[in-house]
Automatic annotation (TrEMBL):
Keywords: Acetylation, ATP-binding, Ligase, Magnesium, Metal-binding, Nucleotide-binding. ATP binds at G387, E388, P389, D411, T412, W413, W414, Q415, T416, D500, R515, R526. It catalyses: acetate + ATP + CoA = acetyl-CoA + AMP + diphosphate. SUPFAM superfamilies: Acetyl-CoA synthetase-like. It comes from Psychromonas marina. This is Acetyl-coenzyme A synthetase. Mg(2+) binds at V537, H539, I542. Residues 531-609 form the AMP-binding enzyme C-terminal domain.
Length: 648
């Protein structure tokens, strides 16, 4: 499908939507010309306990990176997500829960959510959780995950959610870095008919050195599965929550008080604790949710992301609830128990807005019409995509099959670091081109720069940067402002470096080309090659490892690992399986290498640096395009690797 294939906004759609193209253009210009005035007005989308008088105070100056929005205002996130809706829509469903098994569901009204959050907030307080304390969540996709998040915000505790698919090793690392005082988990999760051993993983994590900052573990009884119990440390959710009062006064938080930490992968080192604060983040999540999904009263919104990822924070919980929407939380997977489960859930709950990831779309597309069998999906109004570039074929399938050729697709580009969507179509305003994230949201100033940081004009490809701050931007890396500056502001001075490449076409539309650094995107999950390499070399038989991404039909990218064994060790099918299993255990199933390439040596420069550029080309079978190999210490290594790759 050519990029010239345009899906224009119909007059009918423009009419029904919150914004037309003219309004978008006018508001966008206003947001850039006078951000103070624009955001000063838009900040009123929230209820403030103490209104702000200052709007924007940000510096991208080298050595003085500082980002502040609404800095003298005070508010509470849970009050904005719950309390303020009670008078008008207390009986409206806030959280619609669909279990892994289709016969399990729950509807939780705003009144009920208020009660549950207040009680759990009081339970946390009773455990001496104070404003500023870090609480680690390792939760299944049940309403309690949202309740725990909102309860933290109600009392000013900072949540740090660890994705339920991560290993004990990964949990421990995050607990230690964030100094979590409490861990909230469940006995087990459920996915695709199988139990996920959440509590057992937490138990194992807490055996590791350095985790003694954790005082208590609160365990929600989800499946009723058998778990070990540590009398001194473990608390049953229900037992500590049921006796609590149903009222809990929300704590007034400064706009720049920390709201949450979320660990994400970078190109080097251990995962980074991205820190978001209260006011700007919520203003931005609320605004983007409203306009990107064209949210209107009565919509049933379903985001398939897990709460363990940023999408689950901004567009499963905070954005929708701050708008008073009904948000559907799904415990399972899109293809269980039937291939058409996703479409069945849409029909069952009359979902109007659906937000999912290209990897899920491609997995369904591979099943053909079985993915929509027996369903109408007639309730749908708008479709969204997030997490990785969506290839035009998958876009067209999503549009034709899931959306019955009648729903615009918003291909939303953003990152854990950006807090909310930065580049995206708006349903009633933006003509769509399959594969393009199109244009910037209000207040967002993208630019393309060359490798020297020179800004490029017109239709061209380059490194995607942001020239100025927006309210949802991360403020720092937890306890590591130097690394924050180094990672995001040192490559190109005076701008925020996204780590992505992009192309801009003649219409000013952005086409994200993918990461330009050593970060992989596997099924929409971000992973650093360095993390996987360090997991590999921690295996006693492995001397050296280098990981690169290769195209993968469903996952977007697959993991290709070059592994050099210690001398005296030999490869075997058993070791192949063992090494894969090792990585699963060290990081989690999502990091399992797709391909192991036993390599006797890796291509290095004379100074000993591994030449990844060459490894990428060999892995993708493009060995005729190796480029300059003159700096190689031993060129014969390359020939050997090419030969081995052909035999894999
Ligand atoms: C990629 C997820 C193309 C990108 C919200 C980014 C995308 C990384 C898109 C962030 C999109 C996300 N088109 N690429 N619509 N959305 N990405 O932090 O490489 O998990 O840098 O945040 O995902 O992943 P993260």
């Amino acid at each position: 499908m050519s990029e010239n294939h345009v899906y224009p906004v119909s007059a009918e759609l423009a009419e029904k939507s919150l914004l037309t193209n003219e309004q978008y253009l006018a508001d966008y210009a206003a947001s850039i010309n006078d951000p103070e005035a624009f955001w000063g007005e838009k900040g009123k989308i929230l209820d403030w306990i103490k209104p702000y008088t200052k709007v924007k105070n940000c510096s991208y100056d080298p050595g003085h990176i500082s980002i502040n929005w609404f800095e003298d205002g005070e508010l509470n996130v849970s009050a904005n997500c719950i309390d303020r809706h009670l008078a008008s829509k207390g009986d409206q469903v806030a959280i619609l829960w669909e279990g892994d098994s289709p016969d399990q569901d729950q509807s939780i009204t705003y009144n009920e959510l208020h009660k549950r959050v207040c009680q759990f907030s009081n339970a946390l307080k009773a455990q001496d959780v104070q404003k500023g304390d870090v609480v680690c969540l390792y939760m299944p996709m049940t309403p309690e995950a949202a309740v725990a998040m909102l309860a933290c915000t109600r009392i000013g505790a900072v949540h740090s959610i660890v994705f339920g698919g991560f290993s004990p090793e990964a949990i421990a690392g995050r607990i230690i870095d964030s100094k979590s005082k409490i861990v909230i988990t469940a006995d087990e999760g459920r996915r695709g008919g199988r139990p996920v051993p959440l509590k057992a993983n937490v138990d194992e994590a807490l055996e590791k050195e350095g985790t003694d900052c954790v005082e208590k573990v609160i365990v929600f009884k989800n499946t009723g599965g058998d778990v070990a119990w540590h009398e001194q440390r473990d608390l049953d959710w229900e037992t500590i929550t049921a006796p609590q009062s149903e009222q809990c006064e929300p704590t007034a938080m400064n706009a720049e008080d920390p709201l949450f930490i979320l660990y994400t992968s970078g190109s080097t080192g251990t995962p980074k604790g991205v820190l978001h604060t209260t006011g700007g983040y919520l203003v931005y999540a609320t605004m983007t949710f409203k306009y990107v999904f064209d949210y209107q009263e009565g919509d049933i919104y379903w985001c398939t992301a897990d709460v363990g990822w940023i999408t689950g924070h901004s567009y499963l919980v905070y954005g929708p609830l701050a708008n008073g929407a009904t948000t559907l939380l799904f415990e399972g997977v899109p293809t269980y128990p039937t291939t058409a489960r996703m479409s069945e859930v849409v029909d069952k709950h009359n979902v109007t807005l659906l937000y999912t990831a290209p990897t899920a779309i491609r997995a369904l597309m591979a099943k053909g019409d079985d993915a929509i069998k027996g369903t109408s999906r007639e309730s749908l109004r708008i479709l969204g995509s997030v997490g990785e570039p969506i290839n035009p074929e998958a876009w067209e399938w999503y549009y034709d099959k899931i959306g019955n050729k009648s729903c615009p697709i918003v291909d939303t580009w953003w990152q854990t670091e950006t807090g909310g969507i930065l580049i995206t179509p708006l349903p009633g305003a933006t003509d769509l081109k399959p594969g393009s994230a199109t244009r910037p949201f209000f207040g967002v100033q993208p630019a393309l720069v060359d490798n020297e940081g020179v800004i490029l004009e017109g239709a061209i490809e380059g490194n995607l940067v942001m020239l100025d701050s927006w309210p949802g931007q991360m403020r720092t890396l937890f306890n590591n402002h130097d690394r924050f500056e180094q990672t995001y502001f040192s490559t190109f001075k005076g701008m925020y470096t996204t780590g992505d490449g992009a192309r801009r076409d003649e219409d000013g539309y952005y086409w994200i080309t993918g990461r330009v650094d050593d970060v992989l995107n596997v099924s929409g999950h971000r992973m650093g090659t360095a993390e996987i390499e360090s997991a590999l070399v921690s295996h006693p038989k492995i001397a050296e490892a280098a990981v690169v991404g290769v195209p993968h039909e469903i996952k977007g990218q697959g993991i290709y690992a070059y592994v050099t064994l210690n001398s005296g060790e030999f490869s075997s099918p058993e070791l192949y399986a063992e090494v894969k299993q090792w990585v699963r255990k060290e990081i989690g199933p999502i990091a399992t290498p797709d391909i192991l390439h036993w390599a006797e040596g890796l291509p290095k420069t004379r100074s000993g640096k591994i030449m990844r550029r060459i490894l990428r080309k060999i892995a993708t079978g493009e060995s005729d395009q190796l480029g300059d190999t003159s700096t190689l210490a031993d060129p014969s290594v390359v020939d050997q690797l090419i030969k081995e790759n052909a035999e894999l």
